[in-house]
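Re: export button greyed out
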Amino acid sequence: MNVTIVDYNSGNISSVINSFKEAAKDKVNIDVTPDLNKIKSSDKVVLPGQGSFKSCIDAINKINGLVETLNEFAINNKKPLLGICVGLQMFADVGFEETETKGLGWISGKVSKIDNQNGKYKLPHIGWNEINIIKDSKIFKGIEKNSHMYFVHSYEFIPEDKSVISATTDYSSNIVCSVEKDNIFGTQFHPEKSDKIGLKIIDNFINL
Amino acid sequence: MLKNRIIPCLDVKNGRVVKGINFVDLQDAGDPVEQAKIYSDGGADEICFLDITASNENRDTIYDVVEKTSKKCFVPLTVGGGIRNVEDINKLLNCGADKVSINTAAVQNPEVVIESSKKFGSQCIVVAIDAKKNGDKWEIFTHGGRNNTGIDSIEFAKKMEDSGAGELLVTSMDRDGTQVGYDIALMSKISSKVNIPVIASGGVGNLDHLVDGIKLGNASAVLAASIFHYGKHSIKEAKEYLDLKGIPVRI
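Workaround output, generated via the alternate export path:
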């Protein structure tokens, strides 16, 4: 089996690479590349993302044919894809970080700044927060309700169809922190930085 | 609910862990990779490496330490010390650091913070403020506490937030290494002036100091070195104590 981590210059992805290699334990091949053919031929794709919504979308658009390849992989061929942090946010139709930016449009909704309630909540939302699992998601197999995950973000994904939400976390409001729609998975938190429990989620995705 | 974080800090020199009293009198105390692994297995919420003599010496050893650690520890890793420019940051992130902590360069050239937070995202840019009380204000020190800039730390904190810093690591130079507790007035003052998380540092001698840093200093996270490093307390003990005192922690 092949899992490809899409390397589209979205910032620091070394932790994502390390964690997938750790979870794969040499049984699964982990590729890190922007190569379109590699992506097409892989069994699963990971879409990381750091920095702003706009910077990630711009970086994806810079690679000729990448959006089309990802669309073909996730939407047409319905192969498993996991978006992490801004990787998840990009599933939306539109994001409002820096400036209004069109997303991939895979899951209808928008990405807006977390309401800090006039400074009551510090932003970014940094640290360990409990997730409230509200839907059985395949990537949560063996994960206890209210497990702690590591977050670092200032923007939140607000999907139109609430049935895609698999977990929320409480910070200012119930922030969507995990989605599952058919073959498309996303986590707002960083499984790659969430210790053993995060590695378990990665392992679940690899073994889907 | 978001939990308050406990961050053990390892001072690293030439690839080895040391912890100084007021940044002098260094004692060798182990291998940073092994230490970091012990901390992350013990429940540390993040790990911090501070390359203490990096401003003056060859610092390539830290890259090797970061690379090895990031393959063994799956909690956030922050690395500071001697970071001069965007290229240094890029190199550390590529080695597996999740965040970098910028001190001297942020003071000398705030453009580094603006540029790096744009390039890599605010989430990985921590600005380290080393402050010392002088009269009724706290002044910023650079170069590992050797140079007084005379800059007011509260104003500087605000400026760093505006420049794109994702967090502030605030160290009291008066308290660092003394084990008498954080400078609570400094922590709470900075925390009330900015809307980004503040990590309290410098002066922890017992577990009550950690409680004070969060309850009185309004810090989002507490950083400590020697109380963990010489086995006085484990991370687990610290968390259980904070929990007992009603502070939300990840257990």
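Confidence is low (pLDDT under 50) at residues 20-27 of chain B. The button fix ships in the next patch.
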